[in-house]
Each structure stands twice: as C-alpha cells, then as structure tokens.
Amino acid sequence: MDSGKVEVTAFSLDPQGAGVGVVDGREYHIADLLPGERAVATLDHQSPHRAVAWGSVLRRVGLPSPHRVTPSCPAFGRCGGCTWQHLDYPAQLDTKRLRVLDAFAAAAQAAPAGSAAAQLANIDLAPVVPSPRRWGYRNKGKYVAGLRDTAKSGGASPRFVLGAYQPRSHVVVETLGCQVVEPVIDEVATWAAGAAGAAGLAPYVERTGAGLLRYLVVRANHDGDVLVGAVVPARQDVAKLEPLASALARHPAVRSVLALVNARRDGSIAPAGAQVVTLSGDDKLVERVAGQEVRVGVGEFLQVNREQAEAMYAAVAELAAARPGTRAVDLYSGVGGIAMALAGAGAQVDAVELNGEAAAALAEVSRAAGLPITVHHADAQELRLPGHHADVVVVNPPRRGLSRSGQRAVLDLAPRRLLYVSCGPETLAQDLSALCQGGYRVDRALPFDLMPGTGQVETVVSLERQ
Ligand SMILES: C[S@@+](CC[C@H](N)C(=O)[O-])C[C@H]1O[C@@H](n2cnc3c(N)ncnc32)[C@H](O)[C@@H]1O
Domains along the chain? Predict the structure, then answer.
C-alpha cells in the first residue's frame, strides 16, 4: 500500500460520523465508513502532533454493515449536522453507549494506578434511553444566511439561502427541508428565506464584513408557537430587517420577531448580553419546562428535545431521592428544568446560573408557581454557599465540563449525593476522575439519547460520598 493510502476496518464511529480504525498504531478516521466495514482509503490530513489521520473511502472491501441505512436528509454529508444518519437507530444507541464507555476507560487509564478514579473502568453503564421521536424532535433551528450560485446551474443570479456551514468551511449548504427540526420550524425558515430573497436582503459575509443577515434562529414551543431571532452585525442594521419582520409576522405560527446585534467573530450566534430589539409581537416565547410555563427568548439554553429532556429531568429527581425536606443545589441550572423537577418532588433548591435572562426566567416562574427555589445569578465556579448543608448537588455544565475551580466548588459543597448531567462524555470522564479522587464513588450511570441521528449522548451519573 503506498504512503497516501491505507486499508482500514472501522471498529467505532467518531462524533463527526467517520469510522475509526487503527493500523500499525495509528488511528484513522475515515468518512462514510461504519463500524465493521473495511475500505482502502486515501489520506486527506495527518496530525503533526499525534498518531491520528483522517481520510476518505477510495474502494470498499467486503460487505457493507448490516446497520447501514440510507440517510433521510438530502443534505447528509454536506451540512455536518446529523452525522450518524447512515446508521440504523438501535446501532446508534449501542455506539453512543460505547462512546461513553470508551471515555470512562480512557480516564481510568490516565489516572494513577490504584487510585479512586480507576473505578471508572468498571462502571455498570445502563443502555441508552431511546428518544420518543427520531425525527422532528428539535425545538430550535439555527440557520446561517448565504447565497447559492444558481448561475452555474443555468439560473440568473445567486439565490438567498438559509442553511449551515459545510464542515471545516464557510460554504453555506441549504438545510431547508431538514427533518430533524419540528415541522413548523422548517416551514417558518422556508417562509423567511423566501421573504428575505424577495426583499433583496443581503446575507452577511464574514470575510469582508459586508451584508446584513448573519443567522436566523427559529424556536418553537409545545403549542407550535414560534419566535424568530434575526442576527445582524450592527445596531444600524436592525431597521433594514423591516421587510423580513413584517413578512414573518404574517405567518400564522409566528408570535415574536426579534433582532439580535452580534458583531462577534467566534461563531456564537446569540451570545449572552447581545442587544435584542423586538420587531414584532412579544419579546419572549412561553415554553413548558418540567410542568411549568417559562418565558424564554433567543439566547437562553433549553434542551432541544422537549419530551426526552422531561424524561431525563424526572430520572434526575428520582436518583436525587428528592422529597420534602431535601436540600438541593442545581449548578448550571439554565431556566431550571432540573431545579423545578427537584422542587416539584418537594426539595428546597438553590439554583445557580450565569445567564441573566435564564436566571430571571427561573426566578419569575418560581415566584409565580410558589416553588421553593432560590435563584443565584452567579458563576457556579466562584459561588460559595457558606453554611449550606446540601443533601444533593446536581451539576450540568456546558460541554467543556468543569474547570478546576468548578470541581472545587462542587467538592466544597460536600453533598452526600452528587448527580452529574453531561453532554460531553470525554469531559465528563475527566471530571468524574477528579470527583472520585475527591472522595466520591459512582453508583449509577444512565445515558439518554436527546439527539437521534447525531453522535451526541447525554449521561446522568450518580455519585455517593465515601
Ligand atoms: C448544559 S446547560 C444546562 C441547563 C439546564 N440544566 C437544563 O437542563 O436546561 C448549561 C448552563 O450553564 C450555564 N453556565 C455556563 N457557564 C456557567 C457558569 N460559569 N456558572 C453558572 N452557569 C453557567 C449556561 O448558561 C447554561 O444555561
């Protein structure tokens, strides 16, 4: 085999949907190769620092996996969104479980021999709880505005499109027709693309800084009501959104149209603190979370899979053994799905959240519903609750996991029971390693699938203080 090619059998799937195999000690990630499949691949890129390379199938060897299915989405492979659509659903669940087990095993291996973290290699991980819906489950669509060059295919001029960046590029792939978002979201996004095109609205071009519309965020609630956020680079651009806003306001499902001013170049769409201007309707959408009606805008974090999030919150409250008299802390609470599930079971909850809008939304709903929740608008890494004797602490940080001070804050609370909810198996495993070294033992781990078709997996881990 010459140096630009390799013959690989994949044994797992990475989060980007590439099959992973090892040849002569080097790890290969091959696009469109499923676990169990073999191929001769060409190499596209090799890491200068590690024994890892990425490639594409040149020629398949042997039979396709019995779990290979035809992806439903026409943009599969180009949009970079649901990269596991070519794997059947039971195999997706098994592969997500393996992803968590692999992360735990790697953390156990990296820990000093005989240390408390070595237990991570032997965790009894439950099967992944399947999502009730495999399609149309996402309550939020995020779209990049761009132009598609129709001239090449005989069209007159470039057409306004809404879509996603192609992986590792700034080429916008149209994603209208996406089957993963709730149908009303696709309908509103299609309506918006038509209106923006008809109004001659220019998509923003990151390279030059020219143009108006950067992103469109479409959020739907449990009743099918929709809030649309249009992201522009500067305050003076807001007025130019008028034709789009008035067209959107005519759609029967649209309740709110907001403009967001975001000049950042770090890929964030609706960063905390971005200026928001209401163009039409209410400034918030009422969403049902843990049985309560919460008012949310564009930027607050909400789990995208409503039904499955509710199942997960109920499991957290059960593992927490929450009942009247339980003192609980919910760190990284967002708008409070977990805090409200704990409070609903009778616990007294301190909820800690950095995003001001999310903290205010939780404080408002707690007051209105008479829930025993004290909301702290604060950094969970820095906040200390002196004299607080928590029976249970729940921690649900962003994917990057806990910093050292975040781990310290959790350990300082010293609860009998600690629940860690995470969407990042690798950072979860590293944090569990530190928490085990800090005196905790894992007794249950329960993964949930909140995003079918993707490599994402959410894991609830229950730990007990030794
Ligand atoms: C994965 S979300 C979880 C939210 C919530 N538990 C839920 O299920 O909806 C993480 C949350 O942590 C918040 N966050 C991020 N950094 C934080 C920090 N340093 N302190 C407190 N909250 C933070 C984010 O704003 C977000 O709401």
Answer: 5-61 (2.40.50.140), 99-132+305-465 (3.40.50.150), 140-289 (2.40.50.1070)
DSSP string, 32-59: T--TT-EEEEEEEEE-SSSSEEEEEEEE
Mean pLDDT of 301-322: 97
Distance 395 CA to ligand 1 centre (A): 9
- The values of phi and psi at residue 416, to 5°, are -65, -45
User: In 10 A of CB 30, how many CB atoms?
Assistant: 29
Q: How far apart are CA 457 and CA 444, in angstroms?
A: 16
pLDDT in the model for residue 390: 94
Measured in residues, the chain has a length of: 466
Q: Whose CA is nearest to atom 16 of ligand 1?
A: 354
Quickly list DSSP for 337-381: HHHHHHHHTT-EEEEEES-HHHHHHHHHHHHHHT--EEEEES-TT
User: For residue 221, what are its two tokens?
Assistant: 């609630």
Q: Which atom belonging to ligand 1 lies closest to the Cα atom of 309? A: 8
- Is the pLDDT confidence value at 152 over 80? no
Q: Whose CA is nearest to atom 13 of ligand 1?
A: 332
Average pLDDT over residues 132-152: 89
- Answer yes or no: is the C-beta of 380 below 6 A from any ligand 1 atom: yes
pLDDT value, residue 150: 60
> What's the pLDDT score for residue 388?
80
Q: Which of 258, 80, 59, 45 is nearest to 175 (CA)?
A: 80
Which residue did the predictor score with more confidence, 168 or 221? 221
426 C-beta closer than 6 A to ligand 1? no
Closest among 293, 272, 274 to 284, alpha carbons compared: 293
Q: Mutation test of ligand 1: which of 353, 357, 385 has the most ligand atoms closer than 8 Å to its C-beta?
A: 353
Strand 285-289 versus strand 292-296 pairing type: antiparallel
Other Cβ atoms closer than 10 A to 302: 20
State the DSSP string of 312-338: HHHHHHHHTT--TT-EEEEES-TT-HH
Report the chain's terminal Cα–Cα distance, integer Å: 54
The rounded Å distance from CA 127 to ligand 1 centre is 26
Report the pLDDT value the prediction gives residue 151, as an integer from 0 to 100.
Answer: 52
| Continuous segment of H or E residues that includes residue 434 | helix 425-437
Kindly report, residue by residue over 5-37, the tens digit of the pLDDT: 999 999 999 999 999 999 999 999 999 999 999
Global confidence as pTM = 0.94
Q: How far apart are CA 438 and CA 215, in angstroms?
A: 43
Residue 153 above 70 pLDDT?
no
Tokens read off for 125? 């991980």
Q: In whole numbers, what is the pLDDT of the chain averaged over residues? A: 94
Ligand 1 atom closest to Cα of residue 334: 27
Closest Cα to atom 6 of ligand 1: 333
